[in-house]
User: What shape does this take?
Amino acid sequence: MPRKETRYKIQKGTVGIILAGVYRGRRAVILAQDGNTLVVTGPEKINGVPLRLVGYKSIIPTSKKVPIPDLDYVTLLGRTGRKSNSNLKNKRRRAGQLMKAHVADEEPEAAEEFTDSQKAEIKKKRAEAQSAVDTPLIGKLSDIEKQYLKTTFSLSSRSYPHLMSF
Assistant: This one.
């Protein structure tokens, strides 16, 4: 998929309102662009939004900007460029196994599960990445900006979003 051009309001440091998912209505700071998605964080210590990827259509940029530290956020997420061919080969092999099992009316092989030590290691890496982003970001935020990020966005019956300016 070709790289999508960002909307003119979506820039590093812009505060956006997440529209979909578990964190719907929460404000998050846009940190970087990764392909067709945005890297955002709450910061998690302030409003509970962790370092994560959000699609362009799932966020409304606001006019508020906050200073962000210069870090490579994409590598902190554990994403490194394009997927290798081995992932594609494994996906094709798995699809072939499912087709054979379907034709033979058998149970397909179970997907490989992570062990407890692997899960703990992944959790530790995510926590380190989150603290690497949150600590300098929170240090640069004023008390008013922290309070702004804590508040959630919602509409009531008398709210007209087409008349609002974000």
In short: The beta strands are 14-18, 27-34, 37-41, 52-55, 59-65. The radius of gyration is 20 Å. The first strand starts at residue 14 and ends at 18. The chain has five helices and five strands.
